[in-house]
Amino acid sequence: MHPITKLPQLEALQSNTMIYAAIVAIVALVVAWLVANAIPFEGGQDRSYVKRRIAFIAIGIVAVAGFFLYNDLYVLDSIRGKALQSKFMTTNFICVGINAGVYFILGVIIMVVSKFSKFGSILNRK
Amino acid sequence: MAKDFFVLGIGGTGMRCLEALVHLCAMGMFDDTTIHMLAVDTDAQNGNFQRLRQLKEAYCNIRKPSDPITRSFFSAQIKYYEYATKYQGAINNFKSIFGHGKDQIASDLADLAFTKEVEEFPLTEGYRARTYLGSMMIYDAIVKAAREHNKPGNTELYKFLEQIDNHMDDQNKPRIFIMGSVFGGTGASAIPVIPQALKQALCQAGFSKDALGECYFGSTLLTAYFTFTKPQDPSKVVAEADKFALNSKIAMMFYNDDKDVRSTYQRFYIMGTEEVGDWKVDDETSVKNEKGKQKATVGGSTQENPSHYIELLAACAARDFCNADIEKLKDAKDRKTPEYLYRSVNADGVLDFCDFVDDQEAKDFAFKFGALIIYSILANKKGYNFSYALAHGDQGNDFISLKGDYDSQVTSLLNYFALFSYDNIGQDQFKDGWVRQLDHSAGEGKFLFNSAMFAPTNQSNMKDCKWNEMLYKKDGLGKEHKFSTGLGFGDRKFDTFKKAVNSELKANPDIIASSTDKMSSVNKLVFQTLYKLYQFDKK
Asked: Whole-model pTM?
């Protein structure tokens, strides 16, 4: 990665990082959808939605934490100067919010809209 | 056009044949038919009689009383009647019933024909293989019950006779099929005299039509196929299994020679097994019955013998008679010579679907029987419990919901499958139902389906059972009928079925909504789903 030494470079990086955060959240949602569909209905007093719920939360946490750690451990190293690094850390925290917000809010919206699907069953709405 | 069919099951074997007939109805083998089923026994507390009652209770509650339906499980409408002779209290043996001693000449004549033990043994638990006494007693009991049809216990027999009388005006005259053994007690006693008894009973009940002239009669000639340890009884009059083969032989000679029998019956279905000793019912009950080892009894509530595949064969014979060409029956009636039908199975004893039905129907039978087995797994109360989904609209998915009014129908479905396939008893242990008993009776690997289907003894084993792939045997009819469950985690069989139900529901959105009997519609939906899932729709 090219070293970031100037403010305009950092601002561009900040914008890109926030877009990446949203993209990572959407990719994580796609993964959660696939995993939910791979978990079968079990019949009877079906508790398979619990497995899907755990998978959904776990994928969300991995996506958010993974993106945060990537920025913190890898991207931050390429930023020169404490002031710029501090600004980027603030962006990284905002990205946690974006990532988690997009993943969980969009996820719940999809669950409500597609309540007949396995992904929708995560909410266990009857 | 819907048709009516009359079936009588007489004695312990007759009860089990009726059970098989109910299961055949559940498979959907009697589309568009109303079956009037009369169970006759000397012993109302007989274990097999009670099991039949439970079964018909479950069957009749699953579907609302309505016209018969087609291409579905539980398609036939069953109207059940029962009659048990009343040998109770002091009047419970030949002597007391016929007033032995009142007329000296008649009494002396009776003493010439019967031994003292036979005249005095209590009839409360059947005729104990004394058919020479039983024929007279059962004829007398039926005719008397018809005459006294207002008395409690006789009303159902009257209703059955009334139905026969009502249908004598139909273009297709009533067909009456009698099921029972020729080697035991009650059935063997009744089969030769039932047509005459019905004729006389109709007359005594106040109906004017002639049953012998207007109806067609068919029966099974079910020769010895099981044995049991000789029971201990102080009266010394007991049914002895080692005499069953001899009884069968003599009975066959009688049926072939007797003019009355030949002129009243149009068709006989002869069936039996090669070795009588192969199926020892007290061994089977000792292994399979939850009550533990059960010794052979001469009757009573403990006489609950396990089912045998030959009883399914008898039920299939009833179906054949129901669908028989009318011209053939007319011809047999005119010539006063019954047709004798039989069929032999492979020399190795391995059963095939075409041993039970005609070749062109074998595939349909294979599907319907197999599909009912799968439905029983899907709807079992401790397993996938599809029925729970029906009753609660659960499954984390807005599936089919039959909340409220349908709860009792769903419960009946569970009760039915507990009797058909397996029931969960204490400590997650299965109690074998009818189809599993049939598999045991045929021997390892010789029944119609893959024996591995019936191997699981608890729910955990059942979960591992790959019923999607191995319902049918690897060779023979059905081998190509299976389905895969696709990629994913864990047990995906129910999941695949549910997906298929949903797509079937999308294709026929009104199938449930527009129905007045939603449970019957669900049965039809499952029937159609399994038909496609197991690829029976592909040629």
From this structure: 0.88
